[in-house]
Amino acid sequence: MPDDVLRHLFLGFIRLHVLYHAEKEPICGVELIDELRHHGYDVGPGTLYPLLHQLQEAGHVTSADQIVAGKRRKNLRITAKGKRLLAKARTQLKELATEILDDVDARQRRKGK
């Protein structure tokens, strides 16, 4: 069970990474695998590409084909809907990180203690 919880958590982190990088510049799956590896994620195509398709189907990213060295490559870009999701996730992530990493209990802060 704990492994399932971590897997779901890490898949969420990966989605945030994808949205972040797709906001910065067009990026393809192979580049994302390399970038995620740099951050310590061991993600293969069998995990990443279904996740990218889910983000695309949900309207968070869009793709455009490009030919590079004779091979078709799908570059992803964030959509307006994806930007709104990323902004909300950033807000939530900041609050969570403050609470967990700095041990600042948000409930106590709201109560004025």
Q: Largest sheet, described in full?
A: 2 strands, antiparallel
**What is the average per-residue confidence, as pLDDT, rounded to a whole number?**
90
Second rung of CATH, namely the architecture: Orthogonal Bundle
- Work out the oligomeric state of the chains in this entry: single chain
Going by CATH, what is the homologous superfamily? Winged helix-like DNA-binding domain superfamily/Winged helix DNA-binding domain
Low-confidence stretches: none
Strand order in the largest sheet:
1-2
Named CATH topology: Arc Repressor Mutant, subunit A
Give the termini distance in whole angstroms: 35 Å
Name of the CATH class: Mainly Alpha
Helix content: 55-70%
Helical segment tally?
A: 5
Cα Rg: 17 Å
Judged by helices, strands and strand pairing, the structural class is alpha+beta
Strand content bin: 5-15%
Total strands: 2
Shape: elongated
Report on this structure:
Strands 1-2 form a two-stranded antiparallel ribbon. The radius of gyration is 17 Å and the shape is elongated. The chain is built from five helices and two strands. Helix 1 crosses helix 4 and helix 2 crosses helix 3 (45-57). It has helices at 2-24, 29-38, 45-57, 80-101, 106-110; strands at residues 61-68, 71-78. It has a single domain, classed as Arc Repressor Mutant, subunit A (Orthogonal Bundle), CATH 1.10.10. The protein is of the alpha+beta class and 113 residues long.
